[in-house]
Design a protein that fits this description.
heterodimer; A: Rossmann fold; 2 domains; six-stranded mixed sheet; B: ABC transporter involved in vitamin B12 uptake, BtuC; globular
């Protein structure tokens, strides 16, 4: 709709990096279909799109990690072929990945040294590291071990590592996905400063409010094609979303009746030591989820959510049977199978490898959790028609799209597989459902279906516990929200009073370490 | 030009079936080259190895005799390998099965005991193999000891125990100091199926084992558990399957089957307990299990094929003076090719032209 140059406002300038007709083909699949994009110095350019739209493929080509099948890249008007990331770095292109590539057992300085091509001495490098991190307000202690650092601090290492090469263009892949709202605000100040220094930034995201706030230009990808380059501030969140998704997303309808019944899931004084040395201790967690209620657990990843989920599902056992009570039965020492027989159902965060066996068929993956209490097993023999029926029912009820009736789990897209996994559990009509990151990495359409299904389930009287990093998601579906920080759980806040600010402070540990006003609020609500 | 392995999007079922056949062809080509290097006519040698044993009925029955222990052991091993449990010690479990079963044959020797002896021997053989397999299994579960090492080392222990028994307490007093027990009584012998041949009832036991394994792996929740634990351990834990329990179970089953094969071999074709009762069945069965795709019916076919190499090897030794050790070379090369070809199920080979590098230089 808008000419990128005019959106940028200075058409005379040559772009830092220009992609012309960039195409990436994997077999018959077009991951990027003839994409044009121009990135200018002194500009924060957003790259918007759903999962699978081709954002990562595009930036990987810009950083030399993969080679385009067709099209060309121009760096300051000169054609370049990037054989590897070191060539990209030599030109002045830096990148901060979504998934950090850090060694937990090494110090900050050692990690940074591993990522640099330079020949300077370790001491000089450490000094420069301290200097750069201070200059940009990204404080880091070079001597600290990485495993002691929070996720936000780890991201700082990645950013500082990229800045130490003084890049002209910095690519950031979903940098706020793992941050609290306050940490994100701090990051935006740093990014704004980098822009004012005349650097170009390419900012990958699917959070529209953030993009509208931060970026002067946005390019939207969908299904590997460029849909538009526009000024996000001139667009509404709805119009951007429409360009990303290609259709209007159905609004999630709230439950009509919010009648809650008795507590169906009770967690009492649950403490648990981690099973790996870098895991998180759980400290005396107590919680009640009533029938008909959705309780959200917010928190930055790595604060004990995985351990909490494992303790609830029974994959790891806590010390006493009274720690976890499912529908009045003390289940703390019961196995996963026994808990399922009590009417509990679980959806883990990791779809492939945890929620499903990737190379097994959907019918076999239905059996994976259904063997416990769904009548799929007769005297030790598998009732195959029953497993297939579950697949068909899930497919129909939750609109799972797949190539054939019973494909391998790995062949489904993320969104469709997640609909299958959530659907598989919901069809059992569980009394208690514990679900971790229900819509992580899922397209907007599937996310709406899943959230609606959770709301409907709780409307039918199930106690639903949702562990999620996505505050928007929790605001949309949860009745109460508690925050997990360093293995401790805050008092739950009623969703209506749980503002981003309050949750953000709790996610940063404020109420736990020092008694801030938020504590009073949470007490007031919890009481 | 550069060769790269590229991951396939979907696992290729075509290659999964073709892979063992490709491996066999490659092995035959390699063997032909080896024969040529040894100065033998490759065509004639391959003919003696792989065609001649199929042409007379005696050899065919001998193939079935050799395939019987191979198939039984390999079925048990396939349970382990499907669950990612690496039992390499089937040879030891085979020997301990033979020893435990033989004990009954030795103590009842000449006492005129009734027909209960043979069934009891089979039960004891299976138990002996299973108990021997429990040692590495428990070491793995309790102490995290690597089962590959412990199960393999126990092979030599088992071998020496048997050696001690047949040279010492169980030696046949009328055996002229040969290290062997007395010939088993008829009630302690596995009946022969066809008069005048060595084909015995153990072959039928092997077929029953194949059928039971097919049903168990494909149709029961236990078989599903084995496959999930091997394919996706974290998903298996989420499903509520305990990997420790499964280590014990698969070791017990494979130990029992190897032990049963051991006592059948001793009470059948051999007729006494003596050193050298196994020409390495427990190790060859590893090849059988993989060549057969860890699938019971595949294992039956692979077991017959490897039995053929034993018979053909003996024939080649007699008629062409080719050393019997070449049979082991053959089996080793075969395993090597099977494992190599298996990577083609998940990966494809691609040739990358040096064009991009050149373009890079000019940029």
């Amino acid at each position: 709709m808008l000419n990128p140059a005019s959106a940028h406002g200075s058409s005379a300038e040559t772009p830092l990096l220009q992609a012309i007709g960039i195409t990436k083909r994997y077999g018959t699949f077009l991951a990027n279909d003839s994409i044009d994009i121009e990135l200018y110095a002194g500009e924060i350019h957003a790259l918007l799109g759903e999962n699978g739209a081709g954002k990562s493929t595009l930036v990987k080509m810009m950083y030399g990690l993969i080679q385009p099948s067709a099209g060309e890249l121009r760096w300051m008007n000169r054609k370049v072929v990037l054989a590897g990331p070191s060539e990209a770095r030599a030109l002045g292109i830096g990148m901060v990945f979504q998934h950090f590539s850090l060694f937990d057992n090494l110090t900050v300085a050692e990690n940074v040294a591993l990522g640099l091509d330079g020949k300077e001495s370790f001491a000089a490098m450490s000094a420069r590291l301290a200097q750069v991190s201070n200059d940009y307000g990204l404080p880091l202690d070079p001597k600290r071990d990485v495993w002691r650092l929070s996720v936000g601090e780890r991201q700082r290492i990645e950013i500082v590592r990229a800045l130490m090469q003084n890049p002209k263009l910095l690519i950031l892949d979903e940098p706020t996905a793992v941050l609290t709202p306050q940490e994100a605000d701090q990051l935006f100040i740093v990014l704004e400063r980098l822009r004012s220094e005349g650097r170009g930034l390419l900012y990958i995201s699917h959070k529209l409010e953030e993009v509208k706030r931060l970026c002067g230009t946005a390019t939207i990808l969908r299904g590997g094609k460029k849909i538009s380059t526009c000024n996000p501030r001139a667009e509404t969140a709805a119009s951007l979303a429409r360009m990303m998704v290609g259709a209007d997303i159905g609004e999630v309808k709230a439950k009509t009746a919010r009648a809650t019944t008795v507590p169906r899931l009770v967690i009492k004084d649950l403490s648990l030591a981690p099973d790996d040395p870098h895991g998180t201790y759980l400290h005396t967690i107590s919680l009640e989820v009533k029938g008909g209620e959705i309780l959200g657990i917010a928190g930055v990843a790595g604060n004990g959510q995985d351990e909490f989920f494992a303790a609830l599902s029974g994959e790891r056992l806590s010390g006493a049977e009274g720690n976890v009570v499912i529908d009045g039965e003390a289940a703390g020492l019961m196995s996963v199978t026994q808990r399922r027989r009590l009417g509990a159902a679980f959806v883990p965060e990791e779809r492939l490898g945890h929620g499903t066996a990737p190379r097994m068929k959907l019918s076999e993956n239905a059996l994976l959790t259904g063997h416990a209490a769904s009548g799929m097993v007769n005297h030790g023999f598998i009732d195959r028609p029953a497993t297939l029926e579950t697949v068909d029912k899930t497919t129909k009820t939750f609109d799972v799209r797949k190539a054939k009736r019973d494909p391998e789990a790995v062949s489904l897209s993320g969104g469709n597989l997640q609909k299958f996994i959530v659907g598989r559990e919901i069809l059992r009509e569980p009394g208690v459902l514990v679900v971790s990151q229900p819509t992580w990495g899922v397209d907007a359409g599937a996310a709406a279906v899943i959230r609606q299904a959770l709301l409907d389930l709780s409307g039918r009287g199930t106690a639903v516990l949702v562990i999620s990093q996505d505050l928007d998601e929790l605001a949309e579906i949860a009745d109460r929200i508690a925050v997990m920080f360093h293995g401790r759980l805050s008092e739950p806040l009623v969703a209506a009073s749980a503002t981003r600010e309050k949750l953000g402070l709790l996610m940063g540990g404020s109420s736990v370490s020092q008694p801030e006003p938020t504590v009073e609020v949470s007490h007031a609500v919890g009481a | 030009m550069q060769l790269v392995l590229e991951r396939r999007a979907e696992r290729s079922t075509k290659i999964a079936i073709l892979s063992p056949l490709i491996a066999i062809v490659l092995t035959l080509v390699t063997m032909a080259i080896l024969f040529a290097i040894l100065g033998k006519n490759p065509i004639a040698a391959l003919n003696v190895y792989f065609v001649e044993p199929l042409t007379d009925s005696y050899s065919l029955m001998e193939i079935a005799v050799k395939a019987t222990p191979l198939v039984m052991i390999a079925i048990g091993l396939s349970f382990c390998y499907l669950a990612n449990v690496w039992n390499i010690g089937a040879e030891g479990q085979f020997i301990m099965g033979a020893v435990c079963g033989s004990w009954l044959a030795v103590v009842t020797n000449g006492t005129g005991a009734g027909p209960w002896v043979l069934p009891a021997m089979l039960v004891m053989g299976a138990l002996g193999g299973a108990l021997w397999a429990m040692i590495p299994a428990l070491c793995k579960v309790k102490f995290g000891a690597n089962e590959i090492l412990t199960s393999l080392m126990l092979v030599y222990v088992a071998d020496l125990i048997m050696d001690y028994l047949v040279r010492g307490p169980w030696r046949d007093p009328k055996g002229m100091n040969f290290p062997t027990t007395a010939t088993f009584d008829p009630v302690a012998n596995v009946p022969v199926l066809i008069e005048g041949s060595r084909l015995h009832a153990g072959a039928i036991v092997a077929l029953i084992v194949v059928m039971l394994a097919t049903v168990m792996l494909g149709r029961t929740i236990k078989g599903f558990e084995i496959r999930v634990v091997g394919a996706a351990p974290k998903a298996a834990r989420f499903a509520g399957f305990s990997s420790d329990r499964l280590v014990l179970f698969t070791f017990a089953v494979s130990g029992a089957l190897a032990g049963l094969a051991g006592i059948i071999e001793v009470a059948g074709p051999v007729g006494v307990l003596q050193p050298g009762i196994s020409p390495g069945y427990g190790f060859t069965a590893i090849i059988v299990a993989f060549l057969g795709r860890l699938n019971p019916v595949g294992i039956l076919i692979a077991g017959l094929f490897l039995a053929l190499t034993f018979i053909g090897g003996e024939g080649a030794q007699i008629s062409m003076k080719i050393p019997l050790d070449l049979t082991k070379v053959f089996q080793g090369i075969l395993l090597f090719y099977v494992l190599a070809c298996d990577s083609l199920i998940l990966y494809r080979i691609r040739l990358i032209s040096p064009f991009r590098k050149a373009a890079d230089g000019t940029a």
